[in-house]
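Box 3.1 A note on notation
Throughout this textbook, protein chains are presented in two layers. The first layer is the amino acid sequence; the second is a token string describing backbone geometry. Keep the layers aligned when reading.
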Amino acid sequence: MRIKLLFHFLFIFLLLFIWNVGHSFAEDETFSIVNIKKDSDEKKIELYLNHEVHYFNLVNWPGSKGAKIIPHVADLTWDFSYLKRNKFVLKGKFKLGQKYSIVFPKGYKLDKKSYKKEINSFTFESPSLIDYWNHKTVIEKFGPQYLHLKIANTKIFITRK
């Protein structure tokens, strides 16, 4: 009796599993990147999809025929979590000021869902910088007392006397 009950339980579990897989592989749907969060200090990107990737496809993500970053990024890794299957973390040697695009091949399908382009590019902006040029001192001892500064990625710089 217990064995029969166990087989019924396993059969129902198998049917539910197959039904769940069938729903996650629904046809005529699309997936997109809905958000890209940048962390320029750690040189990492968090990608958020509007679709939770099925466990079977996470193992091979992005795969040889999956998403690519253009231009090429050295030491690029794709990390993911089995708990948040719609979030991917990309780490690599991204260059400041360079525009990067996430490209999927034409006809690419993920869980039988086609890719629909919404957000696909990002840029790591160089941080603003205002610093002393040399040894953090005023160069001219008896002259006009100029302050030599090193300024980078600053649109407006206002001085007051």
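The helical segments are 2-24, 55-58. The chain has a mean pLDDT of 78.
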